[in-house]
Design a protein that fits this description.
A hairpin with a 4-residue loop joins strand 1 and strand 2. Helices cover about 45% and strands about 10% of the residues. It has 2 domains: about 40 residues, no CATH class; about 80 residues, no CATH class. It is α+β, with helices and mostly antiparallel strands and about 150 residues long.
Length: about 150
């Protein structure tokens, strides 16, 4: 039985082996001295953590054209916090709070806590009156003040 299986396998493979030498035509294209195109994204290094910036870079490459670019992005909220910290450290507490109040989230938090942000040198109830009389000065994204203003109408 084993011998029969071996003979069948030889009969099936032998013609293809013997004909392989007769048909020795090969067709191929070989290109030498051609490196594949590459686009490398630039490395943007920001070592100083005190500058409130982050970096991003990207690259794209096709067989014909490549493009790479990099940018730095300024974090405005980080700058605001650092400036407010500096003002507070110099004893200018009202100025530090005023700077933070330029952000609608801080403005809303102060408003909801019952301690309105300073308004043109005014603090406390005088500042609250100033904000209510001049709603155009409120930060654009404020939620608490805008809702309060709608309820009063």
């Amino acid at each position: 039985m084993k011998l029969k299986a071996i003979l069948i396998a030889l009969v099936l493979t032998l013609p293809s082996i013997s004909n392989a030498a007769d048909t020795n035509t090969t067709s191929s294209t070989v290109v030498t001295d051609k490196a594949p195109p590459t686009a490398s994204a630039p490395s943007i290094v920001i070592n100083n953590s005190d500058i409130c910036k982050s970096a991003a870079s990207a690259a794209i490459q096709t067989q014909i054209l490549g493009f790479a670019s990099g940018i730095t992005v300024t974090d405005d909220n980080c700058e605001r916090l650092k400036l407010a910290r500096s003002l507070f450290g110099m004893g200018m507490k009202v100025a530090a709070v005023s700077l933070l109040c330029q952000d609608a989230r801080a403005f809303d938090a102060m408003w909801m806590a019952g301690t309105p942000c300073p308004y043109r040198g005014l603090i406390g109830d005088a500042a609250k009156t100033g904000w209510e009389e001049n709603p155009e000065d409120v930060p654009n994204d404020s939620r608490a003040f805008k809702k309060k203003e709608i309820k009063q109408k």
